[in-house]
Amino acid sequence: MPDDPNHQHHNQEEEEEEEAEAEASLWAEIKAEARQDAESEPALASYLYSTILSHPSLARSLSFHLANKLSSSTLLSTLLYDLFLNSFTSNPLLLSSAAADLRAARHRDPACSSFSHCLLNYKGFLACQAHRLSHLLWSHRRRPLALALHSRVADVFSVDIHPAARLGSGILFDHATGVVIGETAVVGNNVSILHHVTLGGTGKVGGDRHPKIGDGVLIGAGATILGNVRIGEGAKVGAGSVVLIDVPPRTTAVGNPARLVGGKEKPARHEDVPGESMDHTSFIAEWSDYII
Amino acid sequence: MPDDPNHQHHNQEEEEEEEAEAEASLWAEIKAEARQDAESEPALASYLYSTILSHPSLARSLSFHLANKLSSSTLLSTLLYDLFLNSFTSNPLLLSSAAADLRAARHRDPACSSFSHCLLNYKGFLACQAHRLSHLLWSHRRRPLALALHSRVADVFSVDIHPAARLGSGILFDHATGVVIGETAVVGNNVSILHHVTLGGTGKVGGDRHPKIGDGVLIGAGATILGNVRIGEGAKVGAGSVVLIDVPPRTTAVGNPARLVGGKEKPARHEDVPGESMDHTSFIAEWSDYII
Amino acid sequence: MPDDPNHQHHNQEEEEEEEAEAEASLWAEIKAEARQDAESEPALASYLYSTILSHPSLARSLSFHLANKLSSSTLLSTLLYDLFLNSFTSNPLLLSSAAADLRAARHRDPACSSFSHCLLNYKGFLACQAHRLSHLLWSHRRRPLALALHSRVADVFSVDIHPAARLGSGILFDHATGVVIGETAVVGNNVSILHHVTLGGTGKVGGDRHPKIGDGVLIGAGATILGNVRIGEGAKVGAGSVVLIDVPPRTTAVGNPARLVGGKEKPARHEDVPGESMDHTSFIAEWSDYII
Amino acid sequence: MPDDPNHQHHNQEEEEEEEAEAEASLWAEIKAEARQDAESEPALASYLYSTILSHPSLARSLSFHLANKLSSSTLLSTLLYDLFLNSFTSNPLLLSSAAADLRAARHRDPACSSFSHCLLNYKGFLACQAHRLSHLLWSHRRRPLALALHSRVADVFSVDIHPAARLGSGILFDHATGVVIGETAVVGNNVSILHHVTLGGTGKVGGDRHPKIGDGVLIGAGATILGNVRIGEGAKVGAGSVVLIDVPPRTTAVGNPARLVGGKEKPARHEDVPGESMDHTSFIAEWSDYII
Amino acid sequence: MPDDPNHQHHNQEEEEEEEAEAEASLWAEIKAEARQDAESEPALASYLYSTILSHPSLARSLSFHLANKLSSSTLLSTLLYDLFLNSFTSNPLLLSSAAADLRAARHRDPACSSFSHCLLNYKGFLACQAHRLSHLLWSHRRRPLALALHSRVADVFSVDIHPAARLGSGILFDHATGVVIGETAVVGNNVSILHHVTLGGTGKVGGDRHPKIGDGVLIGAGATILGNVRIGEGAKVGAGSVVLIDVPPRTTAVGNPARLVGGKEKPARHEDVPGESMDHTSFIAEWSDYII
Amino acid sequence: MPDDPNHQHHNQEEEEEEEAEAEASLWAEIKAEARQDAESEPALASYLYSTILSHPSLARSLSFHLANKLSSSTLLSTLLYDLFLNSFTSNPLLLSSAAADLRAARHRDPACSSFSHCLLNYKGFLACQAHRLSHLLWSHRRRPLALALHSRVADVFSVDIHPAARLGSGILFDHATGVVIGETAVVGNNVSILHHVTLGGTGKVGGDRHPKIGDGVLIGAGATILGNVRIGEGAKVGAGSVVLIDVPPRTTAVGNPARLVGGKEKPARHEDVPGESMDHTSFIAEWSDYII
């Protein structure tokens, strides 16, 4: 569950140490990748030094890169840099989530050839980290600032995640353009969401009105999920589907309006975790049988 | 009907005065909101002063904000500011439409917590005002300039409304990313349009080839409406629908291809104005019965 | 076939000369259009001189315009300009493809009133040329630079074409926002692709996993085509369709999931080339019969 | 006397009309020059259109040019443009002074080949106009804004004129770099001041402590005039002089410390107005006799 | 003596506490001034919030202001901000020197109406703080970075102080344009230096070759002091003087070449500290007697 | 003599080859310096890669660096880059002059620690190269463009050299702030000019009215030379001097007004070339004898 992880551990300290080590090793790998790219491509070296190689930590690199991407003539990069760096420093969870997202992209997206490529170029990754920052501001009741940041992310990346929405870690927003996630939406861990996906509300009444996405869910390109419905753990939503109903765990919903593959009564269940396996199309055979 | 409102009034002067008063009061409220935000959030105060609090009127504030958002290295902010301010000054209708749009967002979108939030952050609102400005230029046969402005809006906000398209007032573009509205489209008053909505043409033949949207219509996320079809007053188009046919007033079209809820012959009619009530999903029960 | 055109000609030199003449005449026409616009609209003259009228060739004009659009605080316009100009100079095919794309937009899009309008304002045209440049870098194994450029195009135009994807010439990306084309996709010549179209993969396994689009295909707004499927020459994909199957030449696929108009066994065949005729909706009657 | 011209006229209206006509004719000449330059030099046309040819008046052109020159990341060009344009509109004297300064440069500086050259390129001219604007703000007790503007002029042009200093019209600051003019200095009409000239104070005591320069004075490069001394009408101060004493009208002071040419008792008097004739060196013979 | 202050104190801790208190109180005063200005001048409020009022400390405000002033397209403001803030944090002496300089300007310059005015607008103050930062880098053997920063200061403020030069505290650079201070120059505490002053070398031989300026010295506008000469404590150098000789403490050197007022053998000695009293001209009477 | 060097050579080709080799070796040295600095100072690496290390030649590096320094919101860096690169390519003399200037700075200025330091940071060097470019434009009768460029140099570097002025090669402008060189001035080879130096005219009459500076001359800080006077080969002008007379070869002029050291009749002659030896002060003893 995002935002309130109730992990119990024999030894939390040990775990934190491991996490810190993992992050340090990730950062070392990112720098090694960037160094190699800088050597092979002098035209890009200046860019790689300013965004990665001149920084002592992932937190500074990300703060710098996001601040420059999201700044505008009325919202200066130095202000954003300061804000981001302070947030990363006081909330280590932000950084471990970023690290988990980097690993998710690298692991799940065959087009993601290196961590540094994701860190620098994936608008989905960057929009997600910016969302975590604006969510933190929102939680601290600095709402006007959270909304201003949200607005910059929507302009710059065409990704529109309300600051109040709660996201887990290990999230992959693939391609990301056009993603819209509403105020009361919740997204679990290890979820993969393609571009043009909407987690939308049902109307003008306030309150809890957006979808809840379980861990390990995969949502295909252009899918629209509306209302306070529940997409169960490990479920899959086909590309272009319009979902207005709950989807049980480990089942697949497809079509407009979306129906469960295998039928409402006894839907087919899959064994893998689609948010991680990224299998978009294995249901086709079954679907074809069912529909056509 | 947008662009040629044939209102008859006992006393037009009185009405204009009322409108001016309403606008002044709206502007006062916006400044009060911004002032409170500036006090509670010093990091945002500079932004709020430059965009709102330093300006004597909504027209100047909007001109400043849009000019800075839409400027580029080859289209300077001072040029745009001048252009916008002159347009607002010589066309009071532009400002009253902006005011109506602000009220629409505040009234219909539960995530819209204040007028200033909409004015500063809603790309749908800003793209709509920029469209009104480019439409004015188009009407005055300053087409190359209208198209250059249109292009900036499409780049910056990912909202693509042809300068020739005619829009009413009280329009809400919610989230707005990916909206495409073609050259001969007409949109009535008090319409709500979600993101990824297309009001598209039918091919490469010129002439009147885009949809006509009646007053009070609600068009759900990702809906595609193609051709010179008529979406009747108070009708509703479900998310993800592909509409190639006329939709009668107060009825609902859903699906791909879209069909009328309740059937072609005797479609179900609703009483509310969906463009204002923003009820996206009440047809689900009926739809399910009909389709699944 | 893009990228390896095996044209045989009696006289290649003659053909090249003709091509050069055609490009020179196109450039002359563009300048004439811009000159006329500059005269009629002084407010735009500075923009028109800097983007078109001050340049001696289309290659310089495009390099300048793209460099300014795609530059950022960490990727300077001078660096991009240099890169683009060198690419255009050493690869004449880039320029002839750009010329073919300009003609395609002018010929197929009734809203495209002049070549200069397309050159300056069509994000689809500009994103496509930027893709050709990043594809060239990719081919020369300058991948980090290709990906950095790709990322800028995705940010600035909300058009996401993987540098490895292969595109033919005479391509029209109409409106273009939200287009996503994956790593192993191939797009033929004279194809027209509307906004929000996805040519996506099937999952996290690498290898050849994206659609192959034949010459003369028309893909409607919001269509999603997934997997290594083949859309045959002159085929048409309806707006909002979700295509997971091969589509035979000169047939039409519509719906979610997409089916062939006329039925799987004996699909209806059309005579025109929809990628050029841009006929989006003539199948409606038939479709209606078939489905509703 | 600057700032309070007590001119009596038979018919003030007539005079104002003449002035307006003269300004209109000057503006027409500037545009004609710029148009010719734009035609002969396409690389500069964009610059000439944005700074001169797209503007309907000298006031707008100057406001635009100064706003872009003086803006910074924390002081936006739109804010400055608005401020300058409002000032020019409400204080016609600002514009007639600018016109007089343009004529002075054109008339007195053999390197000044056209009005537009001075308007665009002379940092002395631009710094002087910016001073007039900051002086106006100072007079209206908007001192923090006046000082912020003053600071920008000192950074951008290396010309440091305190906002409280009073300047006449028809002023030529030739080359201008390094000019420093203190708070209580007064400069008359038709004065020519070369670069590195200081009109400085005498210490840390406030009050009236800076030089008073009469009409028609010429002050050579690098001259330093300190304290509340009076440089009489039509006097001349040689380059590099350090003046700590009053200089009578129509006499010449040279040297460090400066002495009157011809001697203190019976200084040589010249007939011309050196501020207009710009004769820097005719005193050499006499000086040589006197000193060497 | 700058750079190695050998102060002995009964209680250093106490002193440091006092210094911290004094700085806190200075910062509180600066914020109060800025707040009052922001209230009285809305057009400047955005600027005042971004530069002063949004910052929690003088160190952050100065880092922000300098970073934005000194940044360029190839040296980003975020990089400079980071560098400056780290320097201020790790070297408290930098901040106490800045505070002393602010007090010096406020106390000695009658045109300096407030601390915030000096902090924001005095190029001499800002150039001096930037020098302290580049000097720190130089001391830490980060010479290429020190020189890059030095170069930006020379471009932006026209103040050219070699990073190796050592400056005391309580320095006032009044007007500052054109000041040049060479590599081996040393400037004591409480020194006042006017614009165009040169502390230059004697030729192309390296080694200790620039002037040594004692505490409390006043150097008038345009004075040139060349070579490894010693300007004694409390001495005064007249405006425009060219000094190639030692100047004993509490004496005054004037003229080109400079001679001691009162004669080489028994020069006149003054009682005050001219660097603080800023008395530029009291020697005139005597000088006149001596020379003319 | 600048601008028309009438060198006779046994074998010009050979010489050109040697020159090309010398330039290539200089560029290699510059890159080696920059590479070492980038390695030792990661914070500067991005800057060094963008300005030097990413470029294949000195011409491109200089074009890039100058274009970014001199660009403004109305004069874009891409335009300037294009202009500069074309100029360097078509006029090899520009580059060999730049190389000679780099060597002059490195050889004569003890504070110049490396070629790359001069290339990147010396405003005198950069202003001089920009002048050569604007002089070339002037010679080709592209005067408005030459003047626009001249104006940018005067703003950015506070160095004001009229485009028509003719400069030799091997020029060192040390510190450079405030240098003013008039329209008909001529400066020979291997000249060293300190900051605040003026080569000015005599009044408002056009024609040949500025100084002619012979080869190997040294002009001290703040010297003002006025009128069409001749400063002979190898002569020296003392700091702060005001020169209105011819100065014979190998003599020294000092003072205000300047007199020849050793007397008008039989001035002292020195053996060295002061423009290269940079001996500013050896005349002091003699001067003192002569004057005081």
- CATH homology superfamily of the largest domain in chain A: serine acetyltransferase, domain 1
Tell me the greatest interface.
A-B, 48 and 55 residues
Kindly name the structural category of chain A. alpha/beta
Number of helices of chain A: 10
**Quick one: CATH class of the largest domain in chain A?**
Mainly Alpha
CATH fold name of the largest domain in chain A, please? serine acetyltransferase, domain 1
User: Low-confidence spans of chain A: pLDDT under 50, at least 5 residues?
Assistant: 1-7
Task: Write down the secondary-structure element order of chain A.
Answer: HHHHHHHHEEEEEEEEEEEEEEEHH
Q: Give the oligomeric state.
A: homohexamer
User: What is the topology, as strand order, of the major beta sheet of chain A?
Assistant: 3-6-9-12-14-15
Rg of chain A (CA only): 19 Å
Instruction: Quote the distance from N terminus to C terminus of chain A.
Output: 38 Å
Mean pLDDT of chain A, nearest integer?
Answer: 91
Entry keywords:
UDP N-Acetylglucosamine Acyltransferase, domain 1, five-stranded parallel sheet, disordered N terminus, homohexamer, serine acetyltransferase, domain 1, globular, 292 residues, alpha/beta, 2 domains
What does this structure look like?
Six copies of one chain form a homohexamer. In chain A, helix 1 packs antiparallel against helix 2 (42-53), helix 5 (92-108) runs antiparallel to helix 7 (123-139) and helix 7 packs antiparallel against helix 8 (143-157). The first copy, chain A, folds into two domains: 10-158, serine acetyltransferase, domain 1 (Orthogonal Bundle), CATH 1.10.3130; 165-292, UDP N-Acetylglucosamine Acyltransferase, domain 1, CATH 2.160.10.10. The first copy, chain A, is globular. Chain A has helices at 12-40, 42-53, 58-70, 77-90, 92-108, 115-121, 123-139, 143-157, 274-277, 284-291; strands spanning 160-161, 166-167, 172-174, 180-181, 186-187, 192-194, 198-200, 212-213, 218-219, 224-226, 230-231, 236-237, 242-243, 252-254, 259-260. The first copy, chain A, has a six-stranded mixed sheet. Chain A has 292 residues and is an alpha/beta fold. The relative contact order of chain A is 0.08. Chain A contains ten helices and 15 strands. In chain A, 47% of the residues lie in helices and 12% in strands. At the A-B interface, helix 8 of A face helix 2, helix 3, helix 6 and helix 10 of B.
